[in-house]
């Protein structure tokens, strides 16, 4: 898949209905500087506008790191206004992934620290290798997490555990990340991408419009009270019945044949 500008720090690959985004600054353990965040934004544009893409994997180049955080060298001399802008840039890009109308799987080979853990948490599903390590080390650098960590970590693991991890900067291994619900699955590092692609294939086999609306219902519904949440669900449930794939999925079931979804 083509993007109009030359990318230096992000690679975009496509294979059938799957797009893979690779954060590619291995010398800095894939740390996110503002150029990388802007490239990520461009790549998300291109995926968003491509109706052939049904699912996305985000990963980091090499086996050592997913992303080792926001770029500390770039942040060191920022003033408060510049830092707020940098935080807003990261938050804007991550929120776009979180609300992208296609499911996003983080495939985490190694370190997912600070902004790296935050990037993983902005994805829908996280698959970690046995070597993955997670932390929000910001307080040890004199800052708060700035790309959503104070908001998404408590939503994923509960406020008590999130406070413990953020206040202590403790690093957790993949097994502990699985235990506390920070990741969905832990696999050997050699099979990480195969496992992520296998999960992507299982998603791609379903009706893309239904999957998109499931994501919307979960994202919107979990942010509001239950009375409103069930209305959100009913609204998305209703929208499915405007799609040809709803009729195809149910007809195929009743006719005992395999389904042929068209993303319409
Ligand atoms: N920013 C910039 N450069 C980074 C980086 C980061 N977050 N993480 C690693 N690097 C660079 C190192 O400076 C080093 O560069 P040089 O070779 O030029 O010296 C290179 O990557 C390799 O790193 P190390 O030599 O440190 O590798 P290591 O194996 O000894 O340690 C590590 C690995 C434990 C991951 C260590 O690199 C580390 O602790 N990194 C920083 C992690 C961190 O604090 N992340 C949070 C950043 S703040 C943030 O993300 C804020 C936010 O929420 C927006």
TrEMBL record:
EC number of the protein: 4.2.1.150
Keywords: Lyase
Source organism per UniProt: Clostridium hominis
CDD domains the UniProt entry points to: crotonase-like (cd06558)
Organism domain of life: Bacteria
PANTHER family on file: ENOYL-COA HYDRATASE, MITOCHONDRIAL (PTHR11941:SF54), ENOYL-COA HYDRATASE-RELATED (PTHR11941)
Taxonomic placement: Bacteria, Bacillati, Bacillota, Clostridia, Eubacteriales
Xref: Pfam families: ECH_1
Transmembrane segments: none
Secretion signal, residue range per the UniProt entry: none
UniProt KW Lyase keyword: yes
Name recorded for this polypeptide: Short-chain-enoyl-CoA hydratase
Gene Ontology molecular-function annotations: 3-hydroxyacyl-CoA dehydratase activity
Family: Belongs to the enoyl-CoA hydratase/isomerase family.
Keyword Ribosomal protein applies: no
């Amino acid at each position: 898949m083509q993007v109009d500008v030359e990318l230096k720090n992000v690679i975009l690959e496509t294979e059938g209905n799957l797009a893979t985004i690779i954060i590619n600054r291995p010398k800095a353990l894939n740390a996110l500087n503002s150029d990388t965040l802007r490239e990520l934004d461009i790549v998300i544009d291109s995926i968003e506008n491509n109706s052939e893409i049904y699912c996305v994997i985000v990963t980091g180049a090499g086996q050592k790191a997913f992303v080792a955080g926001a770029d500390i060298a770039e942040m060191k001399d920022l003033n408060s206004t510049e830092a707020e802008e940098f935080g807003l840039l990261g938050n804007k890009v991550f929120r776009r992934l979180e609300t992208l109308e296609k499911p996003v799987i983080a495939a985490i080979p190694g370190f997912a620290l600070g902004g790296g853990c935050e990037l993983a948490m902005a994805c829908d599903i996280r698959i970690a290798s046995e070597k993955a390590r997670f932390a929000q080390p910001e307080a040890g650098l004199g800052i708060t997490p700035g790309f959503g960590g104070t908001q998404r970590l408590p939503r994923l693991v509960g406020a008590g555990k999130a406070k413990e991890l953020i206040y202590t900067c403790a690093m957790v291994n993949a097994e502990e990340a699985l235990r506390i619900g920070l990741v969905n699955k832990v696999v050997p590092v050699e099979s990480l991408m195969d496992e992520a692609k296998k999960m992507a294939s299982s998603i791609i086999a379903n009706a893309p419009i239904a999957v998109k609306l499931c994501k919307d219902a979960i994202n919107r519904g979990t942010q509001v009270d239950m009375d409103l949440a069930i209305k959100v669900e009913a609204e998305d449930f209703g929208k499915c019945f405007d799609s040809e794939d709803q009729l195809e999925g149910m007809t195929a079931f009743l006719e005992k044949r395999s389904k042929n979804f068209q993303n319409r």
